[in-house]
Amino acid sequence: MKHPEGDIAEAAVDEPVEAQAESRERPSVPAFEETPLARELAEIHRRKQALAAEALPLPSATRIFTVANQKGGVGKTTTTVNLAAALARAGARVLVIDLDPQGNASTALGVEHRSDTVSVYDVIINDEPMADVVQKSPEFEALYCLPATIHLAGAEIELVSLVAREQRLRTALDQFLNESEELFHFVFIDCPPSLGLLTINAFVAAREVLIPIQCEYYALEGLSQLLKNIELIEKHLNPALAVSTILLTMYDGRTNLANQVAQEVRDHFPKETLRTLIPRSVRISEAPSYGQTVISYDTNSPGSLSYLEAAAEIARRGAPD
Length: 321
Ligand SMILES: Nc1ncnc2c1ncn2[C@@H]1O[C@H](COP(=O)(O)OP(=O)(O)O)[C@@H](O)[C@H]1O
Ligand SMILES: [Mg+2]
Fold this sequence. Notes:
This protein is of the alpha/beta class and 321 residues long.
């Protein structure tokens, strides 16, 4: 590539004297390497290389995560589908269970979830074997999704009168994983924004809880309620459950507030909080409208790289003891 500054210097030689005088008064043009764009490109290149440098370690037993936060709009679904895609891209076999009647995870993973599609509702309420309902996502090899449809909205109430109402997802998932010919390395369960029976089913089915926290005011409000509920589940329904991972999402480094919130979360949860922050990014928010994750929609965008880095951190840390 020609050096841009070189071009300018050469051009100036042929200019009339007045023009040269004028150009001297103009603000000097920085070398391309010093422009913000160049710095950003160099940074993206460095991050891509760091990600490509080492293969991710895959777990020898399935790691099952519930992605939960009773607040809506904090990035649960976005985190679920993008971490799942990032791990599948790195060679893991991954299942996403969409447990939100909105079906946003199903949309982002490009799987069918019309009102007549057999779905997680049939698994939980009608004992439909999960193997007959799980769909392959077109996003990546070995990425699967148990879709949710609008019927799931009624499940919260229907569950109340069912036997073993808190264990239904766990029973179905355990059977599915036991009967799978190949090991699933990761399962992510995307929860609705509430602490009802569906979310309890997710907590009982999982071993790890991943809490996305949006870097904004009131971020920590409601968290103690969530942690108290998880403690209750641990005590009464699932002693193996642990909050293993906290991920800061929608981070805008230009604001002091985001930095303060991030620091506060790290102070409270030094072990659980991932080093990687997910930035606020237009690419991340527009990917679902193409039925895609940002990992396939714009692999080298900063948002995608952040989810790839977060996934690598999760894989390297391994399951909690
Ligand atoms: N890092 C991000 N940057 C920009 N927009 C985001 C980001 N993460 C999520 N969003 C957008 O914010 C909204 C809420 O995210 P979502 O993952 O659906 O939250 P939840 O599942 O907790 O309700 C969605 O429109 C999503 O596209
Ligand atoms: Mg959601």
